[in-house]
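A further point concerns the way the authors explain their paired sequence and structure data. An entry of this sort, consisting of the sequence and the corresponding backbone structure tokens, reads as follows:
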Amino acid sequence: MNVFDADDHHHMVRALELARHGLYSTPPNPAVGCVLVRWGQVVGEGFHQRAGEPHAEIVALHEAGIAARGATAYVTLEPCSHHGRTPPCADALIAAGVRRVVVAMRDPNPRVDGSGLGRLEAAGIKTAHGLLAGEAAEINRGFVKRMVTGRPWVTLKLGASLDGRTALADGTSKWITGERARADVQRLRARSSAIVTGSGTVLADDPMLTVRDPDLDLRGRRPLRVVLDSSLNTPPTAQVLSFAGSTLILTRNAAAPLAEPLREAGVRVEAVPASPEGLDLDAVLERLGELECNEVLIEAGPTLAGDFVRRGLVDEIVVYMAPVVLGDLARSLFNLPPLARMCDRCEFEWRDVARVGDDLRLTLRPRKGAT
């Protein structure tokens, strides 16, 4: 049984804080923090910044130097034990002579998943895991889900009026929410591997789907922009195609003549399974998982938003609610079929309610065990 004291807790809190510094820049890798402590003093700390660059343990060991010998390492994720873009961190900790390694959570990556801890223990290093595991898993919720299911974490973002409307009857939606709320959306985009919208939103709003807040350091990474467009209605002049970074259009027939002008504009066009009702959203998420997308942000109209909710494919909903009323003819949050029974409803639970400028940010997740 793992037993942790107040000092262990204190240092792991710091390691988690360090991990969050890499939240926007590490995908497809997890965000990881590490703190090295010897005789009660922090001798080294670090976090993983970008895929292909040194992991958190290596950064902390480099800072500690010879002081790492005999130290305790606090790491938010199990040290890797395989050769990827960088050598195994477990081997580096062994070579440095650390005495003990405390891990928040085991790595769900099948290539690791206990083997890192096993390698440390085989070298005579004491190990313990499970300290603040929930907090560590939340930081890397997308990485964890992709490793376990092959699919990304899906967040649905919506902006709405007090009466649950997203646009006027003619489609006008700029701007329901205030400037502070729109700035807060940049944070959601920054931590996403991909931002997904539908062709209807592209035609109506011509969004850019970029991260434009210079204070959010992605260290050169740009989220993939994804347009779900079964009939290839996206014009080659759309803004979502014209900014730096990659755009992917998923459609039912990638060989259709309309795909060629899009490819000439530098866009990737791929086919996914479809039905008369539209693209297979399960197949869409499977493909994004194959592309190593950890977190996906859905910014779409009521039809696509409703499809994701109806199919149970949403892990989190974030609604920015403005203190305005738009009336009955305005567009609703979701287009969903009517229910015949109350037990068929989609149930969610509150995760957070916060004021952002003049608006409210409502964060919800599917209720566990709801039918």
